[in-house]
Amino acid sequence: MSTTLASRRRAALYGLIVAVASVLLLTTALAKIADAHGNIVSPASRNYGCWQRWGSDFQNPAMATQDPMCWQAWQANPNAMWNWNGLFREGVAGNHQGAIPDGQLCSAGRTEGGRYNAMDTVGDWKAQSIGTNFSVKLYDQASHGADYIRVYVTKQGYNPITQPLGWGNLELVGQIGNTPASQWTPESAGGVSIQVGGSASGRSGRHIVYTIWQASHLDQSYYFCSDVTFGGVTPSQSASPSASPSRPPSASPSPSRPPSASPSASPSAPSSPPPPGGCSATYSLTGQWPGGFQGEVKVTAGSSAITKWTVTVAWTNGQQITNAWNATVTTSGSTATAKSVAHNSALSAGASTTFGFLGSYTGSANGAPTLTCSPT
């Protein structure tokens, strides 16, 4: 074999090796992109909030005094903020308490090699002021949807400033079941978002909202701690950073931030003052997409306390409720019946609670239903 022919074959073999390596690297990169997911953006989770407030100025020493819990998190591992969409565990199979020990709930059991460990640090994290009837907004960057989303709130008397978070500190206050991404709200920058309602009646002061998102594409469970103060005004669910922070060259790529997006216009059913000893209900459309929508019903007690309530929802355009939270809903034809659940059954005089749901509709009409509320 001539030297020239051998050289050409070696060159061809080298080129093939380079090409295969390039394909493998590209495949790995695409897999990383496909694995990108999301986070609770309102009320912001700990690592998303730290990225939101300091991503463009994370080396500013003023953070140490202005936002000390975020400062310790940035010092511990900046990638916990740059990779705000990757706080998950795989293979949990629904056994969340078995997979994640007490004191490690905010880091998903020290997942990803300990990247998010600083999220478990006990201290005075920046807290967002919200009302006891609230919703969390989950941004799903990869549009994978959910097998379920569960929203918990710490029990009254728990102090997040001095106590580590354990499973025994939490109470389930809202959830939705299987919800494909096609039923979520599309975001202009890519991905989708959804709001899940919760009712934290009887809470005041500092608390943690804990959200578990079971993504639909793989057995990936996401865990988010959001620090809140009950007794304020619920923040806008369309709130987003005013600018996307730049990442330093040495940091992992910063995922795109969720865009600001407002729900579709909200038709509301007529309301009237609650009758003495009774209750009233009002409806709001909180989001809509082709063939689907998300709604919320506010239930208000009359001039005396009630122990339970039932709301009848009569649709006029053939809508159907497909998933609900904070109420037990049954459907018969064009009428749905929503009954209170344990944590929001009892209402004092003039007090209110909410339940929410996802629904489907056909055609172009998605009018407001007629509501009837009765204490039971």
Name the CATH superfamily classification of the largest domain. Answer: chitin-binding protein cbp21
Question: How big a fraction of the residues is strand?
Answer: 25-35%
- CATH-defined topology of the largest domain: Coagulation Factor XIII, Chain A, domain 1
How many alpha or pi helices?
Answer: 7
- Total of domains: 3
- The computed structural class is alpha+beta
Q: What is the CATH architecture term of the largest domain? A: Distorted Sandwich
Broad CATH class of the largest domain: Mainly Beta
Order of helices and strands: HEHHHHEHHEEEEEEEEEEEEEEEE
Sheet of most strands: 6 strands, mixed
Distance between the termini: 95 Å
Instruction: Determine the oligomeric state from the structure.
Output: single chain
The parts where pLDDT drops under 50 for at least 5 residues are: 16-35, 233-272
Shape: globular
Write down the overall mean pLDDT: 82
Which bin fits the share of residues in helices?
A: 10-25%
Radius of gyration: 24 Å
Let me know the number of strands. Answer: 18
Provide structural commentary:
The structure is a single chain. With 376 residues, this protein is an alpha+beta fold. The protein folds into three domains: 1-35; 37-230, Coagulation Factor XIII, Chain A, domain 1, CATH 2.70.50.50; 279-375, Immunoglobulin-like (Sandwich). The protein contains seven helices and 18 strands. The chain has helices at 3-35, 46-54, 63-66, 68-76, 79-82, 96-99, 111-114; strands at residues 38-42, 88-90, 128-130, 133-140, 146-154, 170-176, 185-186, 192-199, 205-215, 220-230, 279-289, 292-301, 309-314, 320-325, 328-332, 335-339, 352-360, 370-375. Strands 2, 3, 5, 6, 9 and 10 form a six-stranded mixed β-sheet that branches. Strands 1-4-8-7 form a four-stranded antiparallel β-sheet, with no helix packed on it. The protein has a four-stranded antiparallel β-sheet with strand order 11-12-17-14, with no helix packed on it. Strand 11 (279-289) and strand 12 (292-301) form a beta hairpin. Helix 2 packs across helix 4 (68-76). The longest helix is centred in the first third of the chain and has 33 residues, at 3-35. The radius of gyration is 24 Å and the shape is globular. The protein starts with a helix and ends with a strand. The model is unreliable at 16-35 and 233-272 (pLDDT under 50).
